[in-house]
Design brief:
Blueprint: H1 11-30, E1 34-36, E2 42-43, H2 44-49, H3 52-55, E3 61-63, H4 68-71, E4 92-94, H5 99-105, E5 110-111, E6 115-124, E7 138-148, H6 150-171, E8 176-180, H7 190-197, E9 201-206, E10 209-218, H8 220-224, E11 228-229, E12 237-244, H9 245-256, H10 259-274
Parallel strand pairs: 1-6, 5-11
Antiparallel strand pairs: 2-4, 3-4, 6-7, 7-12, 8-9, 9-10, 10-12
Length: about 280
């Protein structure tokens, strides 16, 4: 495509992406997760309440409508971009992660039990550079999200961390697990210190590329979205496991050399690791 960071998937690539997504969604459903679908667009006001524009301004993308009164009937032939003067205020944002929509969709809820949710999200990140399937402006992310008490979230991340490790081992993909940081907390405050002492994010690295991550948010989203335990009225803890699907395509193709072999190995690894097919 003419814009950097946008890439179409051919038939074999799209088939492998679906195989991968069915695998990861199946892991979530096996663990009791409800499979949901979320809107692509989210209100800017809601994302701002999650400190998104404070913590991730470099990634932010907005969806803006034309102001038809200012646009009038100007010719559209050859338009390359729209001047800000003919745009309405930006009220909608494009999320950089799939789990934001989960928390926002549950605002004000009182949970009677620990729960899991899995979603496939269209995500958007403005990057300094784009690189094939490794780094895209628009991409797909499968997430498995846990909400509840701290023990539930810790167990969730441990369980799916083991699943990812077993799956990568069955695929024969050399990998490392590295601590990373996401600024869910004020960089200068006590929460920033807590993050340094107890990292909130771990990434699975293959070929110098993070293809999956495990994220614990403590009770940050529970507080901001007023999601509470019905028993204790305390803000719930949340955590998520995330898979960047196009990034998986990139490392699988690089390792196996063609799409058919990669798809066959994914199906074989799923069976070898967990005793069931896709």
């Amino acid at each position: 495509m003419s814009a950097p960071g946008l890439q179409a998937l051919a038939t074999d690539e799209a088939r492998l992406l679906r195989v991968l997504d069915r695998t990861f969604e199946g892991w979530g459903v096996d663990g009791g997760a409800e499979s949901m679908m979320m809107p692509v667009l989210l209100p800017v006001a809601d994302l701002a309440r999650l400190d998104f524009y404070d913590n991730f301004p470099h990634q932010a993308m907005l969806a803006v409508q034309l102001d038809l009164q200012k646009w009038d009937s100007r010719p559209t032939t050859g338009v390359q971009s729209f001047d800000p003067s003919v745009l309405e205020p930006a009220l909608l944002g494009l999320p950089s992660a799939a789990c934001f929509a989960v928390y926002l969709s549950m605002q004000g809820e009182r949970l009677t039990d620990n729960i899991r949710v899995t979603v496939l999200g269209n995500c958007f990140r403005r990057e300094e550079r784009y690189e094939g399937l490794r780094r895209l402006l628009s991409f797909r992310m499968r997430e498995i999200v846990a909400l509840g008490d701290k023990e539930h979230v810790d167990a969730h991340l441990a369980e799916y961390g083991n699943r990812i490790s077993a799956f990568l081992t069955a695929l024969g993909l050399p990998f490392e697990i590295q601590a990373a940081t996401d600024p869910f907390y004020d960089r200068g405050g006590q929460r920033a210190l807590l993050q340094k002492l107890s990292p909130v994010k771990q990434e699975f690295i293959v070929e110098d590329l993070a293809i999956a991550s495990m994220n614990i948010h403590r009770n940050f989203f529970g507080e901001r979205c007023d999601i509470r335990s019905a028993t204790t009225n305390s803000p719930v803890f949340t955590g998520c496991v995330a898979f960047g699907l196009e990034r998986w395509l990139s490392v699988l193709y690089s390792h196996f050399g063609d799409w058919a072999s990669a798809a066959a190995m994914v199906e074989k690894a799923a069976l070898a690791s967990f005793g069931k097919g896709i």
